[in-house]
Amino acid sequence: MGAAAQDEDERTRPRGRWRMLPWAIVALWVAVIAIAGPSAGRLGDVQVNRAVDYLPASADSTQVAEIQDTLPGGESTDLVLVYHRDGGLTAADRATAARQTAGVAGAHTLTAPPRAVPSEDGTTLMYPVSTTEPGQDDEARTAFVDDVRERVKGDGGLDVEVGGPGALNVDAQKVYGSLGGPLLYTTVAVVAILLILIYRSPLLWLVPLVVAGVADALSMAVVHGLNRGFDVTVTGQSSAVMTILVFGAGTDYALLLVSRYREELTRVARPHEAMAAALRGCGPAVVASSATVAAGLLCLLAADLTSSRGMGPIAAVGVLCALLAMLTLLPAVLVLLGRRVFWPLVPVYGSEPKRRRSLFAAMGGSAGRRPVAVLVTGGVLLGALSLGAFNLPGDLKQEDSFTSRPDSVAAMTTLADAYPGRSSQPITVLAPTDRAGAALAKARTTEGVASAERGRSGGGWTELSVVAEARPESAGERDTIHALREGLDGSHVGGPGAQQMDLETASSRDLGIVVPLVLLSVLLILIVLLRSLVAPLLLVAAVVAVWGAALGIGGLLFEPVLGLEGTDPGLPLLTFVFLVALGVDYGIFLMHRVREEARRGAEPTEAALTALRTTGGVIASAGLVLAATFAVLTNMPLTSLVEMGFVIAVGVLLDTFLVRTYLVTSASVALQRKMWWPGALSRPPAAPAPREPELVGTP
Asked: What is d(CA 683, CA 690) in angstroms, rounded to the nearest whole number?
């Protein structure tokens, strides 16, 4: 080995404790994942996805579901077997229906023998079927519905469908249960492709991707522990969002760290020292931004909806686990791999980075020349797009909650057409047993009720099954449910239609409480971080405008283009929380650099344009990755996930390429030092003290 090579080796080799520290960090993470792995694998076992699991504990329909669990046999599984032929049922069709339903009754313990209800036009027979067989947990319900579907089959033009609340719940459970694998694989593939394009390296892209996978496993284990220890509700929706956040936010943090690390490697010889400098440089901004995101998400704990209240800590766990992995495991792995991980574009010590013509410098320059005009134009554009929110489709119905059409939804459609004067979805009323007779009589005389029957009794309660004249989830059924709740004092009114009404009521209440809480908490954190009042107000106003515009674009496209015939009641709240938290995240990255340049003495215009030029590329890359990960949700088979993924992805893109590039930069240029009022940076630097006049001619 030559002298020069020996000097280079000595200069780049880690010294003392630095040599073992990366290995110790990797070993610690291996031990953590080995311990957490079994819990992570059991997260799917604790998911709940019934409509009632999303509702507040105080909701009337939730009370019905809980009381039903105490009745003899527990909660019932209610199905409707539907036999239909377009030209009219034949005698053979009716015999087939009678034989198959008798087979179901013989194989299972039903609450009553199946009884045919023919349609007036002679095209359809429906058989309500209900069971309270012992052990009716989720697996047993699924097995029951699957067995019924195996036993009832049509042929020769006879269509047989299995619908009802029980079938709908099972179909929803299956869809949520199938999300994990496809969601993870698609997310990994999308992030991998983007990282390869960004890094242009055959190896480097794999490192943050593997670290994000480790963070995802840790987050699943932590959430499983929160469920077991604190009864935090875990739904398929919250699990999906957590995975998206781990890979999206985690990759964003990795992009910022790797970019700074590459820069430091050209100035510092030893990789571990370059990494230490990179962590000192961007670590505080990354920690501050992730803490802001987590604080915004935790505001969901104030929500009344059980599902939203559970999503807050679950999503926050995802962000914090991603932060922990990207600030410990990622640096350790990068240091161990050394400079060669960047091959073929290896940063050379002592080299000068290539000066390329920056797109963001050009964009910043255009914003800087006419800042007020850019601000006004951008504000008008966002405001105009926000008007599209008035075109959002109405509240999402159960039959429209799937992007594909499962058997249970097909049955609902068939029943609605064949029985226009009778609902196929009973309303469940639970009345005190000592007043059950009066409640039954009152229910039968309530406007909009087609029939009412007495059911099981137990624990001081009696179950009444009420059939409305209007079709399920229609305005007529809602009026009937309202009338029953007002007229049956001391009783609880539930069932699928009532659950949907309670869901909408709770979502509206949560929007009015959580939104101000998120705005206040994020604003206070920004004031502390940026030591200013104007800059935080500007950032918060910008992300609120982005949310409105993204929701408006959804209103313009959901029904006319995408064919989505309803809006999930929780969409406005959840998209608001995520877009505000994540949008402020990028605002912190940009404004942190503006503040850094200003503290170095740069004039306000120069500081804003320099910050955009130096951080614009990495923020754009991070925004693309985050938007792409949320866009993965648009490929899922549930309307609520499609809508959420679409709005958040569009909002992130608007925030990254319009608000951060043009509006915030233009505001910084237009406001000058007022941007930092009332902080120290809002005051011009003190003028240097005048020099003493030099006395000329004095001996």
From this structure: 20
Token pair listed for 99: 């034989």
Calpha distance 159→178 (Å, rounded): 27
Digit-coded pLDDT (tens) for 546-601: 999 999 999 999 999 988 888 999 999 999 999 998 888 778 878 877 887 888 88
- The predicted model scores a pTM of 0.87
Contact call for residues 64 and 113 (beta carbons, < 8 A): no
User: What pLDDT is stored for residue 13 in this prediction?
Assistant: 54
Measured distance CA(233)–CA(235) in Å, rounded: 7
**What does the angle CA 242 – CA 247 – CA 253 come to, to the nearest 5 degrees?**
115
The structure tokens listed for 577 are 């929380």
Helix segments in 463-533, DSSP class H: 475-487, 496-530
Instruction: Tell me which residue has tokens 């010889």.
Output: 269
The span from the CA of 282 to the CA of 453, in Å, is 67
Conformation bin of residue 460: beta by default, left when phi > 0, alpha when psi is -120 to 50: left
DSSP string over 567-603: B-TTHHHHHHHHHHHHHHHHHHHHHHHHHHHHHTT--
Q: Distance (Å, rounded) from C-alpha 85 to C-alpha 122?
A: 9
Closest CA to 174 of 92, 104, 236: 236
**Distance, CA of 561 to CA of 549 (rounded, Å):** 17
pLDDT in tens, 227-245: 999 999 999 889 989 999 9
The three-point CA angle 664-666-672 to 5° equals 100
If you ran DSSP here, which 8-state letter would residue 464 be given? E
Percent helix, percent strand, percent coil in the chain, to nearest 5: 70, 10, 25
159-163 and 124-131 beta bridge pairing: unpaired
pLDDT (tens digit, 9 = 90+) per residue, 56-110?
988 999 999 889 888 887 778 889 999 999 999 999 999 999 999 999 999 998 8
What are 608-631's pLDDT values in tens digits? 888 887 777 888 888 899 999 999
CA 520, CA 538: separation in Å to the nearest integer?
14
- Chain-centroid distance of CA 60 in Å reads 27
Q: How far is CA 243 from CA 64, 358, 424, 692, in A?
A: 33, 33, 38, 66
Secondary structure (H, E, C), 30-85: HHHHHHHHHHHHCHHHHCCCCHHHHCCCCCHHHHHHHHHHHCCCCCCEEEEEEEEC
